[in-house]
Every structure is written in structure tokens, then in C-alpha cells.
Design brief:
Layout: H1 8-13, E1 21-24, E2 28-32, E3 40-46, H2 53-59, H3 62-78, E4 86-89, E5 105-109
Antiparallel strand pairs: 1-2, 2-3, 3-5, 4-5
The structure holds guanosine-5'-monophosphate (5GP).
């Protein structure tokens, strides 16, 4: 799947639409989800153009991957959910219901989150 430069997160990265920023560095931007599913619901995205976890894992540089992984942990700690617990979710492809085709990790926390997957 080729990268769509007009996806909503690409537009947020270009500051064409606003976001409630939680964190930013050279490689990473994080912002609060517009439809939060938990008291803490932050989306962490790389600044590079990657469609999903599969694309990021295969093609991102070691520096991008290291920065992203460290940022996720730091953002969760700064959001105050490290002690109570949090869940990381990254959807890839149709079965996962990925809506936005720019790689992102959801950080969810601030309440008991239940089991990982809803039974069919
Ligand atoms: P996905 O289903 O692709 O893993 O998750 C996409 C997430 O992006 C959803 O949780 C959705 O609420 C969020 N989202 C979609 N559009 C926007 C937006 O314009 N701003 C923000 N902050 N979040 C968005």
C-alpha cells in the first residue's frame, strides 16, 4: 500500500489541521485522540511517512525506531498512567479496523481496560 500524503495525520504533521499536542521531538509527534476511548488516549506517530506498523518495522531507520519506542514509554509516564497501567494498540490493515493510514500507536489508560479483544 502506498502512502497517502493527504491522510489526516499527514495533515496534522503539516499543521493544516490542529491537534492537542502531548509530545514532540525530531522523529515523533503525539497528540490526544479526538474521540477518546479512555481517560488517557494519546496517539503517537512518527514524522516519517509510514502506512502502518508493518511499513515502519520494515523501512524506518534504527534512529526512528529507537526514538519512537522511547517516546511511547516517556509519553505514557508523563501522562501519569505508568503506575496504574496502560495498553498500547497499533492497528494494521482491514481486520484490525485501521482507519488512518499513517502508522500510530494508541496509548490507552486511566481506567480498567478489560480483556484485549472482544470475542466474536
Ligand atoms: P485507527 O483506527 O486508525 O487505529 O485509529 C485512528 C484514530 O484516530 C481513532 O481513534 C480516531 O478517533 C483518531 N482520529 C481520527 N481523526 C482524528 C483527528 O482529526 N484528530 C485526532 N486528534 N484524532 C483523530
Amino acid at each position: 500500500m502506498s502512502y497517502d500524503t493527504n491522510n489526516i495525520f499527514a495533515r496534522i504533521l503539516r499543521s493544516e489541521i490542529p491537534c492537542k499536542k502531548a509530545y514532540e521531538d525530531d522523529h515523533v509527534l503525539a497528540f490526544h485522540d479526538i474521540h477518546p476511548q479512555a481517560p488517557t488516549h494519546i496517539l503517537v506517530i512518527p514524522k516519517g511517512a509510514y502506512v502502518s506498523a508493518a511499513d515502519f518495522g520494515a523501512h524506518a531507520s534504527d534512529a526512528e525506531i529507537a526514538a519512537f519506542t522511547r517516546a511511547v514509554s516517556r509519553i505514557a509516564a508523563e501522562a501519569g498512567v505508568e503506575g496504574s497501567g496502560y495498553r498500547l494498540i497499533s492497528n494494521h490493515g482491514p481486520d484490525s479496523h485501521q482507519e488512518v493510514p499513517h502508522y500510530h500507536v494508541h496509548i490507552l489508560g486511566g481506567r480498567p481496560l478489560g480483556r484485549l479483544v472482544t470475542p466474536p
